[in-house]
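not sure who needs this but someone in the group chat was asking about GTPase HflX from Vibrio eleionomae so here u go. i didnt clean anything up, its just raw.
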Amino acid sequence: MFDRYEAGERAVLVHINFTQEGEWEDLSECEMLVSSAGVEVMQVVTGSRQSPHPKYYVGEGKAQEIADAVHRTASDVVIFNHALSPAQERNLEMLCQCRVIDRTGLILDIFAQRARTHEGKLQVELAQLRHLSTRLVRGWTHLERQKGGIGLRGPGETQLETDRRLLRERIKAILRRLDKVAKQREQGRRARNRAEIPTLSLVGYTNAGKSTLFNRITEAGVYAADQLFATLDPTLRKIELDEIGPAILADTVGFIRHLPHDLVAAFKATLQETQEADILLHVVDASDDRFRENIEAVNDVLVEIEANEVPTLLVMNKIDSLDHQQPRIERDEEGVPKAVYVSAMAGDGIDLLFDALSERLAKQMVQYDLKIPPQHQGRIRSTFFEMNSIKTEEYDPEGNLLITVRMQQADWSRLEKREQAVLSDFIVT
């Protein structure tokens, strides 16, 4: 599409510590990201600044230091642990004479390597194209204007304009296909809602052990590895919970600090499993010194995808790596389970996790006896029937429908809102 330096396998890593942000601890995470991408770090260049430089992001002296490191180590690519503007990328590439990738580009590259399903590949391509659309440069000087023959002479369009048009058309085509995928997922969710099957969604920081826990619970054999973003494509499996019955468990992509907005937008269909869940299992690597910061980073992404209102159960994983930690359930002031300490790898505490889930879901279920007069019976009964929530029903001598319903508290609240609180008038106390 346009001329850029080819990225390679040897890299110079750049991390700048901004005094007002205090992101120094992200350097080790960036090194893990680079390792996950299959790139060898030849040298790490660090520095401190008050704010980014508009031309090179770093100062001119530091930029020259990076260029010297590239030539000295014969590196193929410079990777910044920060988000660069298109102009900064181009300026650095001209100075270093090699490909320059920022944090967003690095994460996109890892996602492109991990995508396995058709949907996952489409989502990654969409995110890459959106990122690329801001970085088109005039690299086709031999095609300044496309000229036609006789009768078609005129300015035509530049190759840059052609590239932009082709990008827009491809993005539109991908969005149409992803829209079909979203509709298919919505149909599956509606079917589960009608069958009154609760959905549990695993969320958490990348490499927290979500897929290992998923495999331990479901024996699904999902790919799990000690690397960032090992899971990209969502997987759903049915599990059985005591006193609740069947439930759907969804394994989702891991989150990270400053998750690129293009990725959040592209993975909207996948992340909807998280929005629509009855309970989020927030898996935390309890052995990580920064686990509290990781929890905050995940909560920030949940706010961004509008899933922060979903009830959450913390799963403190990898307790086998800690001293004096035993599997246990931690409860809040009302005695409701709020955290479970487990080891997905060793299988410790999984039975306690099932107990906590059954207890939380049971508390979210409501059961009401209703007495519905004839003029309201048709619509309301059909709604309950679609949700498969009717336990018993009969009619009294006056023609009133006596019905017992059981459903999720969230579903009842939505119904009350839709029926404008009429339902509460029919409850038999």
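also Residues 138-149 have pLDDT under 50 and may be disordered. if thats useful
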